[in-house]
Amino acid sequence: MNIVVCMKETPSITSVKGFTTDMRLERRKEDAEINPFDEYAIEEGLRQQEKHGGQVTALCMGPATATENIRKALAMGADRGALVTDPALEGSDAIGTARVLAAALKKLGFDLVIFGSAAADSYGGVVPAAVAEFLGQPLLSYASKLEIADGSVKIERAAESGYQVAEATLPALVSVIQTINTPRYPTMKGIMGSKRKPIDTFSLADLGIDAGQVGVAGAREKATSASPVDTERKGEIYMGNDGAADRIVAYLVEQKVL
Amino acid sequence: MANDVWALAEIANGKLTTVSLQVASKAAELAGQLGVSSAAVALGTNTAAAATELGAVGVKTVYAADGAVYDDYLVQPHVETLAALVEQHQPAVIFFAVSNYGRDVAARLAARFGLGLEYNVSDATIEGGALTVTVPAFDGAQLVKAVFVGGGTKLVGARPNAFEVNRVGGTAEVVSVAAASAPANGAKLSAPIGAADAGAAGHLAKAADGHEYWQPSASQPKLEEAQIIVSGGRGLGGPAAFAQVEDLANALGASLGASRPAVDDGWIPYAYQVGQTGKTVKPAVYIAVGISGAVQHKSGMSSSKLIIAINKDKDAPIFGFCDLGVVGDLNVVVPQLTAKVKQRKGS
Ligand SMILES: Cc1cc2nc3c(=O)[nH]c(=O)nc-3n(C[C@H](O)[C@H](O)[C@H](O)COP(=O)(O)OP(=O)(O)OC[C@H]3O[C@@H](n4cnc5c(N)ncnc54)[C@H](O)[C@@H]3O)c2cc1C
Ligand SMILES: Nc1ncnc2c1ncn2[C@@H]1O[C@H](COP(=O)(O)O)[C@@H](O)[C@H]1O
To answer: Which of B32, B82, B100, B345 is the most exposed, fewest CB within 10 Å of its CB?
Structure first.
């Protein structure tokens, strides 16, 4: 079983966010971490490998320094890394990114590709389906459970009530949500071992992609301005349990809710 | 016709979703502003009923395809039908809702034709002749305005409740199109399994791995569509305490919601999560019980008209963005509140 996990590097959740002069998200090397949602994807790749054998590759499109975060996936247990990096990729939109990942996946080959449900920098959740389209493959999206048997992959996905089951024959693509597993922490042994694991890097030329289709040149959207939002509310604060319920009821009546 | 403004409708379990009516309302409004026509695409079962509803929000044409294939597979057949329609009619804009369905359809369409794709949009206007979208960034701390570059159909994914349903009245012309055939290598779908029966009250249930979770009553309004929401967080301490929260919700005619830790710890299903990675809600009243108010939770509910918080920690961030905050113990305040609401409603 050849499993590829797609992991993005995103600014850490707690880092201070800012824009570049051309209105893109500022990405500082020191804040870069594995997109938290992709940790579930990596974990699921490792669990499937434990059951079915084969190898797990962590694939990332990002800056040259992303090897450090790929190394973390290797420390968790992935066998090898693949980084697509090229100065022309900066400023890629979701479709540009998907174009690149699809080309890299063709080059690497795969039985199963696992994505996170969204990247924590933009909460798009659109790259997996776009990659599936470029590859002409089915995508089983938003999986909360994944099972491989007899050459096909089956997922559970949460529905409004209960869950649905979706199924496809391999090769296939899957995106996973937070409830699918609990990602492991790398062990000391894993960290040491990760240093010897290979990371292949690819440029756009290696993948045969025209630079005009990706990066800022290929992006079909452009941010023009940003303004801070004031979401603070100076509400009334009621202290203590005594009379609190009465106060809420009175408030709901004042507001004509009750 | 070319240059029209379209909306992608979503039919789930044979019913048009409310977010579909929201994006259709916006499509009709923008079409009016631009002096072009509006249309919606409805694929699945009961498209005739959907078309009636879409016409009532001002959509002029509904392209409809009826077929079990749309329920039997995840988005692939939908994309085939939509792509053929787009090639034929070249709409200027297609609005879709950023549901699991909308994202997957729009992303495939954008990849197929190399289209511009904006998502999580909270507003869309025409500024200086250009379609301009507003997108919350940094967990809602900033609002970014963006435009599309180059030609082709523009895909605009709206957050739930970004737009209002405007029942301006009207009847859409229904254009039936042939249903797609089943994909050669498709993602085949089953109907919901283990769906709670609509009559069942909220109760503690056992998951496959044996842990207990709260299964809310299925008769509540959908979270995105609810006028009142009562959400519980880690402060509840476990799944059983959701009984109290649901009692309050029932007394108020509200829906139940939750923060991420309550979902992660398996206290309540994922469908109830509010926030950045859950549902975006905009009710008239949002009551947060035992929720601290982290930015990722806030970004999914901060546009609620009124926010009421019950939390024992006076320094909890939620007290910085609520209209009424009670610093108290939820185990005391919530049952009392439920009793008083019932009393009031009964009288
Ligand atoms: C990438 C990412 C995405 C995320 N997406 C989401 C999301 O979509 N939705 C979401 O909610 N979170 C999300 N989070 C998590 C978020 O950061 C917070 O961890 C979470 O919202 C906290 O949930 P909470 O308020 O229930 O728990 P806590 O922060 O632990 O707060 C519990 C509160 O309960 C109060 N309390 C305890 N006991 C009582 C009592 N007896 N009476 C009254 N009050 C009591 C405490 O004072 C405390 O304020 C995300 C995080 C990340 C990193
Ligand atoms: N630059 C990238 N490199 C590798 N994987 C990515 C990249 N961008 C997105 N992905 C994958 O696509 C998923 C959804 O991302 P997005 O659509 O950007 O929210 C992520 O969870 C990753 O699995």
So the answer is: B345
